Amino acid sequence: MGETIRVLLADDEAVLRAGVRAILATEPGIEVVAEAGDGRAAVDLALRHRPDVCLLDIRMPRLDGLAAAAELATALPRTAVVMLTTFSEDDHIAGALGAGAAGFLLKTGDPRELIAGVRAVAEGGACLAPSVARRVISRLGEGQLGRGAAARTRIAGLTPREREVLGLVGAGLSNAEIARRLFLVEGTVKAYVSAVLARLGLKNRVQAAILAYEAGLVPAP
């Protein structure tokens, strides 16, 4: 990835696309390289332009955002997908995360959250709008998304250090922050995170964070 973060924006509402594009245009180092009004066009344009980040609406014609995200996760695994929507229902959250999305932001959120989210996922991190994060954590506590016993069994094969790193990912720390916390170099942390994702069959840090909560590595607020 170069210094400029290349973004593809897909939404069937042209006015909303213009608004998001205007927000991103205020931030140096972020460039919208393509726009689409439906999910199928978004996938086609992503394959052509290979952006660093795709911002996808959930409800779009021809191919919805969740299906587009699933296709992109397979075809362009290095492209981070963020779902950008007005909807915050649990089924949409679960569907987006299951499709491999690295983030979930609300269109009604603070523009600063949008910019920070794009930067976070472009750097290999994850982003959840605060209201979405609260809903996910709440559902974990209720057991509707959480499977505590299964999660603890799933992480049983990790080394103590790997479990520690997973817990810090779940707490929302970046690789640099984890490195400072554990007195490691950032490259070592990145290797640990990659190894944990691979061993557990996780697509990204969002799924890792959810598993960390399920397994009790991070206390829910």
UniProtKB/TrEMBL annotation:
4-aspartylphosphate, modified sites? D57
Query: Which residues are in the Response regulatory domain?
Result: 6-122
**What residue intervals traverse the membrane?**
none
What does UniProt give as the signal peptide span? none
Q: Which SMART domains match?
A: HTH_LUXR, REC
Q: Which residues form the HTH luxR-type domain?
A: 151-216
Q: Which InterPro entries match?
A: CheY-like_superfamily, NreC/VraR/RcsB-like_REC, Sig_transdc_resp-reg_C-effctor, Sig_transdc_resp-reg_receiver, Tscrpt_reg_LuxR_C, WalR-like
The UniProt keyword set, sorted, is: DNA-binding, Phosphoprotein, Transcription, Transcription regulation
Q: What is this protein called?
A: Response regulator transcription factor
Q: Name its species.
A: Streptomyces bugieae
Q: What is the lineage of its organism?
A: Bacteria, Bacillati, Actinomycetota, Actinomycetes, Kitasatosporales
